[in-house]
Amino acid sequence: MPHIVIDGYNYINRIGYPGTKNMANLELQRKSLLDRLVLYKKQKPNKITVVFDAYRGYSLTRQRENYKGIDVVYTRENETADDVMIEWIRKKPSGLIVVTSDRAILDEAKSHGVAFITPIRFEELIMGIDLKEEDLEDTPKAEKKGNPRKLPKKLRKTGKVISKI
């Protein structure tokens, strides 16, 4: 089963939601995102974790909560959501899919062979738009060998993982 890990504030800044774009209240924006993910989770029961920077100021430990089946992680003091996501990518658990447009996280995912998708593409999936194989993002193209009519193994594997979300 895929484990979707979302960079929370990156997602909010890229997508935004009707009625929340002009709101300065981050709590309402977070709740709007989480409520939308709860609806998605009812359709596709994948494990979803959303990582947010700094939970209500200074904390010596990461704070976790469960919001209607969505795991929410708030980073500890002097730690960013990027740090947490990169740590998980390096552990490379099976079925991990990273949702972000942050270049550092995407580069780390590419180098460790972890599937990733941008917030805009994930939003399209939530809205019911199917992702095509040519839209999948993976490692840069190297010199091709083998059957030219068959996608590279890494891209086929990534496609299988992403098709489950």
What would your notes on this structure say?
This protein has 165 residues and is α/β, with parallel strands linked by helices. It is built from six helices and six strands; from the N terminus they run E-H-H-E-E-E-H-E-H-E-H-H. The protein starts with a strand and ends with a helix.
- Over the alpha carbons, how many angstroms does the gyration radius reach? 16 Å
Distance between the termini: 9 Å
Query: What does the main sheet amount to?
Result: 6 strands, mixed
Instruction: Write down the CATH class.
Output: Alpha Beta
Helix content: 40-55%
| Mean pLDDT reading | 81
Query: What topology, given as strand order, has the largest sheet?
Result: 3-4-2-1-5-6
**CATH topology annotation:** Rossmann fold
Task: Classify the beta-strand content into a percent band.
Answer: 15-25%
Global outline: globular
- Counting copies of identical and different chains, the oligomeric state is single chain
Quick overview of this protein structure:
The chain is of the alpha/beta class and 165 residues long.
List the helices and strands and how they pair.
Blueprint: E1 3-7, H1 8-15, H2 26-43, E2 47-52, E3 63-67, E4 70-74, H3 81-91, E5 96-99, H4 103-112, E6 115-117, H5 119-126, H6 153-163
Parallel strand pairs: 1-2, 1-5, 2-4, 5-6
Antiparallel strand pairs: 3-4
Helix pairs in contact: 3-4
